Amino acid sequence: MFFSAIGIDHRADAQKREKYAFSDTQKLEFAALLAERGIFENVILSTCNRSEVWVFAKDNGHLTEDLTACYRSFFDGDESIISCYEGSDAVRHIFRVTAGLESAIIGEDEIYRQVKESFEASQRFGNTGKVFNRLFQSAARCAKEIKSHLKVSEIPISPGYIGLKFLKQEAGSFTDKTMLIMGFGEIGQKFYRYAREYGMERVIVCSRSEKRAREVLDCAENAQYRPFACWKELLPEADIVVTATRCPHYIIKKDQLLTREKPLYLLDMSIPRNIEGSVGELPLHHLYNVDALTVTANENMQARKELCKTGETVIDRYVEEFFDWLSRLKEDEVIESLHQSVDRVMENHLGYLFGKIDVNEKEKSIISRTMQAAMKKALMNPIVSLKTMEDKEKRQAYSKVMEELFDLKRKV
Prior knowledge:
Strand order of the largest sheet: 7-6-5-8-9-10
Helix content: 40-55%
Low-confidence stretches: none
Distance between the termini: 8 Å
Oligomer: single chain
Number of strands: 10
Order of helices and strands: EHHEEHEHHHHEHEHEHEEEHHH
């Protein structure tokens, strides 16, 4: 059995991550492309900081090469920024990503939800099986243990927190400022909550989902909802603009903006980007994207790194348990094949026997059950010994001997 993972992460700049981002439609297209190469189990993870494909195949010795070829041809991008993992390294990488240890902000909580949603989407489309399902269940349990015991995420360095801290450093006090938030998904809502905590004088939320926005704003005195289409007329009122939408193209463009008499600070949290880069060339327009948050993040990162070293030992344990389960799964398939082989031999001989002697249906049933019980009893001791054997290498060796002696074919 083979595992492989490929993709790019936060180490690539925003422009390159934008090129490799998967839309929901592209995920389906890429899964179909993999299926053409015989790769039917896959999970595609696409976030603002990461675009990765994780795959599993039972008998593809060229899995990594096939996956790499598909990924490169699909995006036709810079090969030097693509990371690739295979075998146990790929499995460990999936555990580390799910636990947040591979994130730009180590230990952040959002990636767990994103991995979970990506896995569930693949599961709905039938792109995961028994092995991949077990892998992601194990990765989820591992991530929960790391988060609950180490409490890494309690060090407040989420994108929303860092973004607000960064904007405060650039714009100064929030007590006389108006913030315009465009897009009110999870990131937009975090900016809203942190903006209130930081004492923002006024917050305007532009969203296509009025119901969700009003539920979160909950009649707050210093916050108001406006339809997304109104964003342009609201810009003159804003001192700070945060874009956090899923729109696949620029929303704010240079030629749409009017001359300003006071500074405007724009933070583009979207991938693909929502604000045209040339906007930052205009007088009094200060444009930043998610890459600008890296400096602020580094201030708190070292503490998390030290804490997460303990997390690596937890991952070691879960990875070992997964591969132990995987080895036992192979042995279970050998045992199942042995039972099937014995059943076929028994059926053939009973058929021959019943053709030679005159017995009624009741007698046939008694003979069949007796033969079946005898065969199961004959197999019981070696099977129990194999399943309870603690020595992994010895267990695998015995399983292989059994497979070869009885000419069995594994079907994991």
